[in-house]
Design goal:
92 residues, alpha+beta, Alpha-Beta Plaits, 4-stranded antiparallel β-sheet, 2 helices, globular
Length: 92
């Protein structure tokens, strides 16, 4: 079942850092269908669409932390995210 994660204050901090993290540091995550990022009130917000909850959780727990540590030079605070099991969708 499709799963969405929403991070409203991503530790990467900027869109440029997000680009570096996802292109230069981490390989494309398994099960990632789409990712959207932008700044809201000075905070980096990311919405990701996954093939399943298992894919999202594997990325968040196994790969994201080490990637952020490489990007930032220090271990970041745990990433807080909201997860949504998609029960209804509309795509134009």
């Amino acid at each position: 079942m499709t799963y969405i994660t929403i991070v409203d204050d991503a530790p990467a901090g900027t869109v440029e850092n997000l680009d570096t993290l996802m292109t230069d540091i981490l390989a494309e995550p398994d099960g990632l269908a789409a990712r959207y990022g932008g700044m809201v009130n000075g905070k980096l917000c990311i919405v990701a669409v996954w093939d399943s909850r298992a894919h999202a959780e594997a990325f968040m727990t196994q790969r994201l932390g080490p990637g952020l540590t490489r990007l930032l030079g220090e271990k970041p605070a745990p990433v807080r995210s909201l997860g949504v099991e998609v029960e209804h969708s509309y795509v134009r």
